[in-house]
Amino acid sequence: MTTTAPATATTTTGELVALAGAHGVANYAPLPVVLAHGEGAWVTDVDGVRYLDALAGYSALNFGHRHPALTAAAHAQLDRLTLTARAFHNDRLPGFQRDLAALTGTEAVLPMNTGAEAVESALKVARAWGYRVKGVRPGAARIVVAGGNFHGRTTTVVSFSDDPSARDGFGPFTPGFDRVPYGDADALAAALTDDTVAVLLEPVQGEAGVVVPPAGYLRAVRELTAARDVLLVLDEIQSGLGRAGATLCGDLSGVRADLYTLGKALGGGIVPVSAVVGRRDVLGVLRPGEHGSTFGGNPLSAAVGSAVCALLATGEYQAAARDLGAHLGARLRELPGLTAVRGVGLWFGIDVDPRLGTGRDVCVALARRGVLAKETHGVTVRLSPPLVVTRDEVDVLVDTLGSVLGDLSGE
Ligand SMILES: *Cc1c(COP(=O)(O)O)cnc(C)c1O
């Protein structure tokens, strides 16, 4: 038998990055920072360097690292029951479903684990609803999606992506999707047919660079879909649960969807928890055995999910996102070196003047100065600090970004 040193024997950034290179798979290109500890809006690396986390796990960490109410819920549940599978009821899931339905103003909750699974679930439910309720011919159902979308990484979900790096080499793809330009209600209207069962949209496109659609777009889509007996599915996995300054970003436009997908922050930064929530008559098309997940709705996830719902029920985090976001947006718009600042709530996409460098260059320089952020693509950097940041910490973020842009323009 051969023995290898456990990973814990290596402790420095250099050693751990090398170890990742030796045994990992290069499906990510992480910044050369190795994190070992987190609390609130701050993380510490293996060399003891502290960073302000301005990414917050792409909004999975809306409540910061190790929020005490969330870790307490997880610890308590770890000592009682963690997994049953859905062959049996567990004593945590019904309460979580009640809490999430109440929080989102919806009727039914289908629990899953990751975001991509929630999207897959919503697509399957929409198709089944199309055949069983709307009366679409078997096999003919179509779903309209938007250009620039990001809904996850499974084969079906990348089937309707227009990002070559998400698709190339992974076909053949799942048929049945029609893609129209994001933000163009007329194009969407033209794409609806009698076979269309659903429109799937992000109310604000996160991965595309925090792209906010034109005013009135979501409302127009809601009217068009209602008129054609087409389900509106809003993917709120990144935009929801406080990030945009509301529990659901769609509510900011006065739009109620038939189904919502939720994920990321629903797991409190502790466990993967996702869900499809919405109309009972739509989710109710599923019959026993037709869809499921070994881990979906497990008691540990449900306990954490309920604790997340309790945090959001006060409205405190949604208000913080609005207030801090207004401050962050105003300060970002004063910075030289940016060609665009887009955002909603505490969620911004900034475009760096290409003469200064790429989004990646800015993120590398930010990390050297103690702020962690992530480029989306090209010149765009996404800023989504945890909703627990203080105004002073937002100022640290903007001041550091200002120094980095200043340095890059001086070179
Ligand atoms: C992150 C994300 C997903 C996928 O979630 P995973 O948990 O990574 O599978 C889907 N939709 C949107 C809008 C997202 O931001």
Automatic annotation (TrEMBL):
Hey, which pathway is this one from? Amino-acid biosynthesis; L-proline biosynthesis; L-glutamate 5-semialdehyde from L-ornithine: step 1/1
- What keywords tag this UniProt record? Aminotransferase, Pyridoxal phosphate, Transferase
Coiled-coil blocks: none
- DNA repair recorded as keyword: no
Q: State the needed cofactors, names only.
A: pyridoxal 5'-phosphate
Matching CDD domains, A to Z? OAT_like
Q: Name one GO molecular function term.
A: ornithine aminotransferase activity
Alphabetical list of InterPro entries matching this protein:
Aminotrans_3, Aminotrans_3_PPA_site, Class-III_PLP-dep_AT, Orn_aminotrans, PyrdxlP-dep_Trfase, PyrdxlP-dep_Trfase_major, PyrdxlP-dep_Trfase_small
Q: Please give the SUPFAM superfamilies that the UniProt record associates with this protein.
A: PLP-dependent transferases
Q: What is its EC number?
A: 2.6.1.13
> Would I find Transferase among this entry's keywords?
yes
Q: Which PANTHER family match?
A: AMINOTRANSFERASE CLASS III, ORNITHINE AMINOTRANSFERASE, MITOCHONDRIAL
Stated family: Belongs to the class-III pyridoxal-phosphate-dependent aminotransferase family.
The protein in question is named ornithine aminotransferase
Source organism of the structure: Pseudonocardia spirodelae
Query: What gene does the UniProt entry assign to this protein?
Result: rocD
